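We store chain and fold; thus.
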Amino acid sequence: MAELKTQPSATSVAAFLDAVEPPQRQADGRTVCHLLQRITGEEPRMWGPSIVGFGSYSYTYDSGRSGTMCRLGFSPRKANLVLYVLSGRDGEADKLARLGKHKTGASCLYINKLADIDLAVLEAIARDSLAEMNRRYPPA
């Protein structure tokens, strides 16, 4: 079985964020980093080459494949700011309707820039997602 590419690394989160382009995406990345750190109480850590993650959990699929991933995370990519904060929890769709301009896919939330959204709604979504992660995968 192939090894998962998204593993925790020793890469500096600050250095990663310093290299993000364009400058607005870098600023948005720093804002999201502080927001998720405040919500989780965890220090940010790089997962793979481009995901900033907070906390971790272990999972095993029905197929037997298992791994470890961050509880919440984000990636300030060139096309979008991608947040790994969607859980499918009750009420999530209502919050997404109030969030502002965004797209979704699986557990991902895609935002062009933070100025397009309501940060208080984003915080509520992230808090709900963390609560759902803690319910499904209780912290050790």
